[in-house]
């Protein structure tokens, strides 16, 4: 929470982006067997129609692409790894992505 909260405001939206190349916030579609996600902050006024499901979190709703739910667990945890400046996304079954990058699209 301490890492993400300074980037949040009422005029911003938090996304958990499945990196499949779909939508304006997906950075790439890697061709490998690894599931890959990024955490994004976008202006609330930006188009986020690909993010059709909101997951509840202790930071407020997190938008996801609905079909990415098949790669997620019901109970999710996002932990910051300070020495690597990355996040780890895990669920009931263990780690989902151990290299979640953070991108704030509201910063120039």
From TrEMBL:
SUPFAM superfamilies: HesB-like domain. InterPro entries: ATAP_core_dom, HesB-like_dom_sf. Pfam families: Fe-S_biosyn. Residues 2-104 form the Core domain. Gene3D superfamilies: HesB-like domain. This is Core domain-containing protein. The lineage of its organism: Bacteria, Bacillati, Bacillota, Bacilli, Lactobacillales.
């Amino acid at each position: 929470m301490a890492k993400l909260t300074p980037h949040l405001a009422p005029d911003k939206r938090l996304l958990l982006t499945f990196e499949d190349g779909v939508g304006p916030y997906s950075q790439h579609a890697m061709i490998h067997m690894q599931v890959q996600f990024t955490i994004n902050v976008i202006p609330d006024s930006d188009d986020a129609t690909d993010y059709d499901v909101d997951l509840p979190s202790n930071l407020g709703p997190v938008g996801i692409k609905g079909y990415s739910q098949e790669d997620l667990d019901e109970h999710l945890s996002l932990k910051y790894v300070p020495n690597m400046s990355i996040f780890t996304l895990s669920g009931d079954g263990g780690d989902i992505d151990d290299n979640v990058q953070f991108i704030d699209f509201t910063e120039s």
